[in-house]
Amino acid sequence: MVHFYRNFAKDYPGMNHQSSAFTHTYNTKYMQLCVIGCVLLLGGKLHSLFFTAANAYNGYVHAKAMEKIKQANPKAYNYMMEEETHLWARYKFDTQLKALDNTTNFVESFNGKIEKYRHKPIFTLLEAVMEKFMSTIAKRAEICQEWTGRVVPKVKTLLIKLEVESRCCMVTPAGMGEYSVQDGRTKFTVDLNVGHCDCQFWDMSGIPCKHAIRCIIRERKDLETFVDEAYSIERYKLAYNALIHPVQDPTFWPNRNLPHIGPPPTDDIGRGRPETARRKDITEMRGFQRASTIRCSQCGVFGHNKRSHTGQSGSLVNKLKKRQTNKKRKRPIGRPPKQGSSKSTMKLRTPHLE
Fold first, then answer.
1. In angstroms, rounded to a whole number, what is the distance separating the alpha carbons of residues 125 and 40?
2. Average pLDDT over residues 180-187
3. DSSP class of residue 227?
4. Which of 34, 83, 124, 273 has the fewest C-beta atoms under 10 angstroms from its C-beta?
5. What's the CA gap between 185 and 178, in Å, rounded?
């Protein structure tokens, strides 16, 4: 969804046309927080509706957001509908995935780890990647040994947050684990037996939503027992149970009388430094748009630099010169002399010129 949004923001910069530069900041691991905060500040209404439609857990919220996008910009609506909905709309995802993210965080994290080693030879690159992930797996396998309870700490924190939000929900029991929950002006049906809620948050993520949490609290049951097994500590330990074994240095390898493989030919290598940037896909935004706020160091006028200076002085430099000439003289250090004293009446003598 990250690349899809980049192309969307490039063609449709928003209602206030100020968010084109914001699309370059999505390669961080905490992208979700940056998107929610900066889109509302810079992207305007159109980008806010985009993420509402993409991150909606049910079809009703998705349809409402798409309808508002169509009213605001029909071309943007047609652009989104050209892409297959199940590739970027969360409510179309398979419910067996049990994932909270709607981004390519795994790919971006991998690219960030190997960024320093991309220009290295292939053998050095593979060794660096192996050592990087070998230490990561060992560190996480050691940390999880100290955890207690059933689910991982991140899910525990989320459950506490959802429990606080569930205090505004009104529960009406129907019997046999089924409830009707009033949240504002909307009613939701909850079935604790199958782990279902009409908001689809529990179905998609595997973590009980605030409506289901209010029903679980009413039955005085443990919230962690209703979380999907994918978030359990046992599954986490099982994922990092397989370690990457270290590889011996080539000096300790046995001699197998194999042909020597030399370095690649250097005839086809061009001038300059080798490229270190990742080759972007066709669907990704290319190039970098330079900001139009550059200022010339000669004349101080915005819009050009020192190289393209034409010799005309700008108004900014004139203002700065006037400020410097109109500056008040600083007060001398020390106590001023008293009136009538010899120091104040003493005149400076000029040297006699012969």
1. 40
2. 94
3. S
4. 273
5. 20
Range from 42-56, 95-109, 181-195, 325-339 carrying the lowest mean pLDDT: 325-339
Distance of CA 172 to the CA centre of its chain: 40
Q: What are the phi and psi torsion angles at 197 (to 5°)?
A: -140, 150
Given a cut of 90, whether residue 320 has pLDDT beyond it is no
Residue where the block lists tokens 């923001």: 9
Provide the terminal-to-terminal Cα distance of the chain, rounded to the nearest Å. Answer: 89
| Window from 23-32, 177-186, 195-204 with minimum mean pLDDT | 23-32
The label of the residue with tokens 């003493």 reads 346
Per domain, the residue ranges of the chain are: 2-92, 117-149+233-247, 153-231
**Alpha carbon separation from 277 to 1, 269, 283, 285, 286 (Å, rounded):** 21, 17, 17, 14, 12
Phi/psi zone of residue 125: left (φ > 0), alpha (ψ -120 to 50 degrees), beta?
A: alpha
Residue 253, Cα to own-chain centre: how many angstroms? 44
- Structural tokens at position 159: 């459950």
List of E strands, the chain: 170-175, 178-183, 186-191, 196-197
